[in-house]
Design goal:
Elements lengths: L5 H21 L1 H7 L7 E6 L6 H4 L8 E5 L15 H12 L4 E7 L3 H8 L9 H6 L3 H11 L4 H20 L3 H8 L4 E8 L4 E6 L4 E6 L6
Parallel strand pairs: 1-2, 1-3, 3-4
Antiparallel strand pairs: 4-5, 5-6
Length: 221
């Protein structure tokens, strides 16, 4: 059988070698500690989009953050049933076992999942996993349609990307173990939005119910 597109794989192997030399050679003390276990203070819920790797964006070392990534960085509401809940399991482990102090929902611009939600999604399989998943943010879609339905679609998609982060923050509070820790001051929920076109980061401000600049774009030059 012919193997196609091995250039990427070879590049990844070369990348692992550089990682190996850095963390198991030059800076081996870090992994000497991590071998005994992990104790990250922050859970990042990010998108599976290849352009928005949280550890790369935040320039973090291994062990700095516990990360769960999915289509459109969504958090489903708490459901206590027999289904398999991958994102919910990660949240439970991060909060109850690792005892993280922060949960960051990291949204971003040009999100394919939110675009599919806003513009309609053509199922690629009979299961339509993507279509069903992004319905988690349907409340954001309805809000945008009601408030900005006459605006260009790219503006509506961006508004929904932002609003869906708030939906996920609200859904986090439906988890009893999250709500309990937030109310006791043990856990903080944070909403961020990465504008990958400008290279800027925004944070949700509950008081103004809006996203405010956290790290502004670099000046053009």
């Amino acid at each position: 059988m012919q193997v196609i597109g091995m250039d990427d794989i070879q590049r990844f192997i070369g990348g692992f070698r550089r990682f190996q030399h850095k963390y198991f050679g030059e800076h081996r003390n870090l992994f000497d500690q991590l071998k005994r276990g992990q104790r990250p203070q922050t859970l990042i819920i990010g998108c599976s989009d290849s352009r928005v790797d949280p550890a790369l964006l935040m320039d973090c070392d291994p062990g700095d953050m516990f990360v769960v990534r999915n289509v459109a960085n969504l958090v489903p509401p708490f459901e206590n049933d027999a289904s398999r809940h991958g994102v919910s399991a990660a949240i439970e482990f991060a909060v109850c076992d690792l005892e993280v102090r922060h949960i960051v929902v990291l949204g971003h611009s040009s999100c394919g999942g939110i675009s599919a939600l806003m513009q309609g999604h053509e199922p690629k399989s009979e299961a339509d996993f993507v279509g069903k998943w992004v319905q988690i943010a349907d409340a954001a879609r309805q809000q945008v349609r009601a408030e900005l339905g006459d605006r260009p679609m790219d503006e509506q998609v961006r508004a929904c990307e932002v609003a869906s982060v708030i939906v996920s923050l609200d859904n986090l509070m439906t988890f009893p173990f999250v709500e309990e820790r937030v109310e006791s001051g043990q856990l903080a929920l944070i909403g961020w939005y990465f504008d990958l076109r400008k290279g800027a980061l925004f944070e949700f401000d509950p008081e103004s119910n809006a996203f405010q600049p956290l790290v502004t774009a670099l000046p053009k030059g």
